[in-house]
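Notes for week 9. Today we move from apo structures to complexes. The key idea is that a small molecule is not decoration. When we ask for a structure prediction with pyridoxal-5'-phosphate present, the ligand SMILES becomes part of the input, just like the chain. The input block below holds both the sequence and the ligand string. Read it once before you look at the output, and try to guess where the molecule might sit.
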Amino acid sequence: MDTKVFEEYESEVRSYCRHFPTVFTKAKGAYFYDEDGNEYIDFFCGAGAVNYGHNNPEIKKKLIEYLENDGVMHALDMYTVPKREFIQTFEEKVLKPRGLNYKIQFPGPTGTNANEAALKLARKVKKRRNVFAFMGAFHGMTLGSLALTTDKSSRGGAGVPLENVTFIPAPYMFPELDTIAYMQKLLDDDHSGIEKPAAVFLETIQAEGGIRVFEIEWLQKVRKFCDDNDILMVVDDVQVGCCRSGTFFSFERANIQPDIVTMSKSIGGYGLPLAITLFKPELDVWTPGEHNGTFRGNQLAFVAAKGGIEYMLANNIESEVRRKGEIVKEFITKEILPLDERLELRGMGLIWGIEFEKISAGLADKVIEKCFENGLIIEGAGRKNSVVKLMPPLVVEDETLIKGMEIIKKSVTEELAKL
Ligand SMILES: Cc1ncc(COP(=O)(O)O)c(C=O)c1O
């Protein structure tokens, strides 16, 4: 295994590769392969970017056909067939059946780009600069989104003050605190010192924050709070959208309609870069080119994105995620939690976190390293990275899912024995 060129020439900013020190060659479904011929089960899934599996064969066929026909590869935001077909498919197969009426914007192709667009739009519509976000949130690394992101190390890289955001304690932090009443007080109290926000930004399941699932009733109350106070509700579905939670949009379980929704990662179908910002039509106050960019709407990603939606529907991915989620919950509850009574489990659909904080935060990192040695790619999340985060591709076979969890069990057992 030769990693010298990376270590010598690639910036110190590189991160995930430090947890998985090998050189990968191939990936298929829920598996990765490296140069030395090792096979790994993938429970990281490109941080949620390959929900439909690595090199999904049905989507691949469409991509190859498009390439062989010399389809347009770059067109700025000009009209192309792949863009038309993606918009039509998204409108007819995703939005309409859910009773959702959104306009679609293609910002730059990453999650943070989608949030930057949402942020600018909300501020422009409401003519207010402040925004509410929740402690534990992760919304991206560019300056606007970074101001909404909470972890110290990410914020530390900004180099300038990150402003115009008020962080509200997430409901799990102080269960006795009514966060909705708290937000209302911030608005009503003329001595609160807090400016009325243009929007409330949230993930319905804080992923990087440690797999914190927000309750349905609380999400509904946030919706009502926004309605009552003329504030926009923005849901960041970058990581837990595209069926990860068991429904296409993560907010469906609360039966609410956010004003703005952001998506990236698996919306690109095949691990290709694509992001979208969805908003209610009356919010479309952009002037032409006001939020511009060269790589807005990757043509190949449009082909894959349409393919991803078709694949998702043909294979009942939403209900499959819910079924597989029960397998995960049962296995961890019966096989892993009993290893130490201080372990905790949180999650839904196919995003789960095992919390190690009560034993020692550093233990999660050790388990992650051990899992890699044992043939499983898995990452951490949460405060002090104390959570082992399970996020397999949604197409993972039941057998592979169980095999991966057996590796976690073995790795936790080995690391607990060292304490
Ligand atoms: C909820 C959420 N929002 C935004 C982002 C940023 O996406 P990107 O890394 O594509 O900029 C992420 C990335 O993990 C995320 O999890």
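The first helix runs from residue 4 to 9.
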